[in-house]
Amino acid sequence: MSGHRRCRFSAYLVSSGWMAITLKDTYSIEGAVDIMKILKARGAVPDDAFVT
Questions:
Q1: Which of 7, 15, 4 is closest to 35 using CA atoms?
Q2: Most buried residue, 2, 8, 21, 26, by most Cβ within 10 Å?
Q3: For the whole model, what pTM was predicted?
Q4: 7 CB contacts (<8 Å, ≥6 apart)?
């Protein structure tokens, strides 16, 4: 996710009240964690977000 590249995603509200966000592409765990860090830094996802 460098420059102005857009990340395609879908968001779902699950019955527990949490939001599940899925990314269009498949990433290694390291790549997914890197993307999550960028999204957190931009305020695009909450601080308690995690990768599974």
A1: 7
A2: 21
A3: 0.67
A4: 1, 23, 24, 35, 39
